[in-house]
Amino acid sequence: MTQGTVGHSVAIALEGLGGELVEVETQISPGLPFFKLVGLPDTSLGEARERVRAALQSSGCPLPASRVVTNMYPASLRKHGAGFDLAIAVSFLAAAGIISAESPTRAVHIGELSLTGQVRAVVGVLPAVAAARAAGFDTVVVPADSKAEAELVEDIRVVAVTSLRAVALHYGADADELTEELEYPSSSAGRSVAVRERERSEDPTGALSAGSALDLSDVVGSDAAVRTLIIAAAGGHHLLMLGPPGAGKTMLAERLPGILPDLEPEAAVTLAAVRSLRGMPLAARLDRRPPFEAPHHTASAVALLGGGSGLIRPGAISLATGGVLFLDEAPEFARHTLDSMRQPLENGVIEIHRAQGRAAYPAEMQLVLAANPCPCGNHGDPDAECRCDASAPRRYLARLSGPLLDRIDLQLRVERVSAARARLVDHEAQLGHTGQEAAHPSISTATARGLVEEARGRARRRLESTPWTINARIVSRWLRAPEHRPRRDAYAPLAIALERGQVTMRGHDRVLRVAWTIADLDGASRPEVHHVHEALSYRIRLG
């Protein structure tokens, strides 16, 4: 082995959905034998010394009885995880003269090493490959288990390897100088956890295919709620449903993703990158269906918003980007956790700051809150007795702060379906089976999605000269411009509500956004008075 030389390779340090290039350099020089890793590694990366040492030994390239120092530049950038193992080992192979010193510098290396020299999958391969392409690299070396994930990024060559020995041979090492490749298990017991999870969940139609059986026509006796759901989908509006248990709030929320249009390719890549950072399995092709996240009310702020020690991970709010974040029993969530969502609801981005750094993740989702009217759930229900004291409903709903509710465009009361209404629905269903026309035909998910896509198409054409594509993201300046405001007679109800203090200025703008969405659904060129009246009806007072 050549001593006194330095070998180089390249890796990626992830920061949020982005990444920074890290130059890994290893020097082998005379001196007391030891292996030192410098460059601000965290604990798991500090343990790379033992993994790399064992992997090199198993691959026929043992560390020499010399001084070996590996530096990761820039040293000021904190580095996390085991994904640097492969780059460290490759830089050693270059320093030892086993492979060409130049070849490893033209590719980015991502992967963890096992003690036997296998290259294992790590979290965050997709955003790391995207960062490599953005930095100008045209080749990445990744674990074979992560090949499909890496190939989701276009215009970059993916070299998939199973072992460190395969990497050395790829870079031109002499096979005679290496030991024979070890026999790695071929059964599922020898494959990585990530691959086994992917095999169990592989689904070309998307992660929500199991929910495709949830059809909007299953919702009976709640025509107003279905109408509100379609408005929410058409404009990308946040939604609050208030009603007793059994009123169908969860049923409605679960069917909202089904009526949303497919994600644009860029949004699908962003969602896949977020899932990759959470270690979730990805299908062999992009999932274009909007996601649905429903964390339990005991979820911590870190689980909901993101964070954690070491690598800052995305939370449920980012996993729902492009889709729906459903918070059932919303008043049961910690109030400070809910209030922490106020800024992401406005900006569509969640920024997480920690002592060791910061990360920004997407939060372009639709928030759906569901709440009972009181702790027992029966307040205001004529068919059930409320067991709470007189002030309990107000105290219970006060857990949802005013500033948070002011950011919810649509606020809807949902009532239980009465026995008489259920019998009427059954009768109409029987009429449908006999070919007769029902008085109130139910709308299917496919039909509703068509309406939503048409309305979004009208909004997109209207906003084609702006940065926005949906009404929920339009800024106040555009809404209040004279050429975009409703005519005087149509605007009058909103002006009166603002004058009486029934809506705030933020609420005023949200009513206008909803009115534009209703107009888009009706095919109108501008909101009319009945559109504004309907939009105002969704600004209910709780309690």
First-last Cα distance: 78 Å
The proportion of residues forming helix, as a percent range, comes to 25-40%
Poorly predicted ranges? 180-211
Taking the sheet with the most strands, its summary is: 5 strands, parallel
CATH class of the largest domain: Alpha Beta
Cα Rg: 28 Å
What is the CATH homology-level superfamily of the largest domain? P-loop containing nucleotide triphosphate hydrolases
The proportion of residues in beta strands is 15-25%
* Main sheet strand line-up: 11-14-17-10-18
Q: Which CATH architecture of the largest domain is right? A: 3-Layer(aba) Sandwich
> Tell me, what's the shape?
elongated
Number of strands: 18
Q: Count every helix, treating DSSP H or I runs of 4 or more residues as helices.
A: 22
Per the CATH scheme, the topology name of the largest domain is Rossmann fold
Keywords:
single chain, 543 residues, alpha/beta, Ribosomal Protein S5, domain 2, Rossmann fold, 2 domains, five-stranded parallel sheet, four-stranded mixed sheet
Please tell me about this protein's structure.
With 543 residues, the protein is of the alpha/beta class. The chain folds into 2 domains: 5-200, Ribosomal Protein S5, domain 2, CATH 3.30.230; 209-445, 3-Layer(aba) Sandwich (Rossmann fold), CATH 3.40.50. The chain has helices spanning 43-46, 48-58, 85-95, 125-134, 147-150, 164-170, 193-201, 223-235, 249-259, 265-277, 301-305, 316-319, 335-339, 342-347, 392-397, 402-405, 419-433, 445-462, 476-480, 488-499, 505-522, 529-537; strands at residues 5-15, 18-29, 34-38, 67-73, 108-109, 112-113, 119-120, 139-143, 157-161, 239-242, 292-293, 306-307, 313-314, 324-327, 349-354, 357-362, 366-371, 410-413. The strands form 6 sheets. Strands 11-14-17-10-18 form a 5-stranded parallel β-sheet. A hairpin with a 5-residue loop joins β6 (112-113) and β7. The chain starts with a strand and ends in a 6-residue tail after the last helix. Mean pLDDT is 87; it is low at 180-211.
